Amino acid sequence: MARRAPGAFSSAVALGRQLFHAVGDARISKDGRACASCHPDGRDDSLVWATPDGPRRSIMLAGRVRSTAPYSWAGDEADLRTHLASTFDRLNGAGGLKSVELDALTAYIESLAPPPPFAPVHDARVERGAALFASKEVGCAGCHAGPGGSDNEVHDVASKASIDRVARFNTPTLRFVSGAGPYFHDGRYATLHELLTANLDTMGHTKQLSAGDLDALEAYLRTL
Q: What is the homologous superfamily of the domain 124-221 according to CATH?
């Protein structure tokens, strides 16, 4: 069970928890799936789903929602409440939730605490990876900036597939990225190593890195 912040069990959070796990509520989805069906315990199902906008990867919610607006892979929903309502529309929910219920569901999702943080790692490889991540030559920190690991902007990194409706995608947070595969909006990269070596410098600049530097960068990412 996901850990939650102290004092988080208000009446709103309790109602939100009930709604998050509600199976068969036609207001949420036509086929009866609950929020927890794709985001079990606030995590994710690691699946890529067909949507009207193209294939989209489920994302982890616990500890990755606050301060990461805008929402959706397209970055076109300014707040979590709006994102939830539009998600129910995409799932063909009948009418959606009442305003007080949307507020409660939002409160519950924001209360979901992340997994325990990784123990600090202080070795030469991780330190080298951190330096590469922050360097202008590699460019990771240009978009994955700040404590949230995202600049909260949309970018075209040449990742549009033929069936995608848009070419610009929201910068995902890098919190707990080691367990967030497969990667990209359509899950095209199975591993972090593949992402770093196969993106052809459309996102950051990693082609020039040696095998050792790539390993160091991956090792650093796994500590986030």
A: Cytochrome c-like domain (1.10.760.10)
